[in-house]
Amino acid sequence: MIPPEQKKAVVLTSGGLDSAVTAAIAIADGYECHCLILNYGQRHSAEISCAKKVASSLNAAASLILDIDFQTIGHSALTTSIPVPKNSTVENVGKNIPSTYVPARNTVFLSIALAWAESLGAPAIFFGANVLDYAGYPDCRPEFLDAFNKMAHLGTKQGVEGRPITVYAPLLQLTKTEIIRKGIELGVKFELTHSCYDPSPQDKPCGECDSCLLRKKGFQDAGILDPALEDQ
User: Which of 37, 38, 43 is nearest to 56 (CA)?
Assistant: First the structure.
């Protein structure tokens, strides 16, 4: 049973590997975890069901699924018929802003998380951004995180009253291998996660998109078999 004095946190939960580890870190740090799952019209919608399973496996205090129509306003390979880039190399990932970038997505996501956090009286939001593996996304950089935190402190009742809501990105400077090892340490069930940008109709990973390449290398370098692939 969760102690009444335990601090609450909203955790952006996508069903991916990084967000699962981020949620586990929030719980390990003593927060009551409220998982925010956003269905924004992404082609990798399998992540929604995975996010629910991850939240359940971590015994999150609550999970909330909200719909956002990024198919209308977000010109991206993740929300339209634009082909998902494939067959690159891990070394080239992040050198340019890829077509899988969804315009202002993390700004919108964090703003919704901020609203829910303030409604809950929560002092924290946890966000699985990673600058090393996703350097091509401008909304995963430390500068973006710092700027959002300043805005959150200025633009909320809690912030004005001296009880600011802070966004934490505990994976920001970790490699994919370090993230995986941290997840193993915290008992994350990686078999429940989904990372592929362009899965098959049966929700099987393509093995060729940037996200699949990074995940594959992370598990290889960690010397661990990806449990999500064991039944394939």
Answer: 37
